[in-house]
Amino acid sequence: MANRSTTADRRARIEEMRRAEQARERRNRILTIGISAVVVLGLVGFGGWVINKENNKQEQQEAAAKAPIKDEKSWDAKKLGRNHVQTPVKYDMNPPVGGDHNPVWQNCNGDVYDKPVNDTNAVHSLEHGAVWVTYNKKAAQGDLEKLKAKVKKTPYSLMSPIDNQSGAIMLSAWGKQVTVDGADDPRVDAFFTKYVAGPQTPEPGAACTGGVGADGQGGAGMGQ
């Protein structure tokens, strides 16, 4: 009888341990599922936040591209000549924003020139969708450094000095131009957003490399 009682007690303890282990496993599963759900919800929430942020950024860029730029000057793009010429051209504005131009463009893949470039080559760059940043000796060196950094990281843009232009810093695109107060003027970003390879471009998708470089040599892109 004692042996039977001992065996029954042992079986009872084993069964109790088994039930306790099963309970722990259930709690662990529930805890794991709960943590996983929280992580998934967190990731979904973060993903939604990222998407909303990107959507807001895109909406802001689209709004900036449509918004008028204060004191911007415009010319009828259809009336600006687009003939290729080998001779100098007298433009009605300085810097020029369009008109007949050299058959070869000035390289405008974020190119910064320390010396003046040929207007007729630069106008060809504008035809390809470039924004041309120009400055004279009145421009502050700090502003120039910031603008150079911006141009260098922006395809379809170029920068060069023009000593006899009216404004210290001017931005030009095909048929568009604005004089800004400095590198931090909000119109700089607005102009780049709106006109770098923008809707004013007569030849969208045309190259900004393979043309004339800083040494004045080039000519791989005749006829574009």
Task: Using brief descriptors, characterize the structure shown.
224 residues; alpha/beta; Glutaredoxin; 2 domains; 6-stranded mixed β-sheet; 4 helices; 6 strands; 43% helix; rod-shaped
Describe the structure.
The protein has a 6-stranded mixed β-sheet. Helix 1 (2-66) packs across helix 4 (186-195). It is of the alpha/beta class and 224 residues long. It folds into 2 domains: 1-66; 73-195, Glutaredoxin (3-Layer(aba) Sandwich), CATH 3.40.30. It has 4 helices and 6 strands. The longest helix is centred in the first third of the chain and has 65 residues, at 2-66. The mean pLDDT is 87. The protein has helices spanning 2-66, 119-127, 141-152, 186-195; strands at 73-74, 109-112, 131-135, 157-161, 169-173, 176-180. A hairpin with a 2-residue loop joins strand 5 (169-173) and strand 6. The protein is 43% helix and 12% strand.
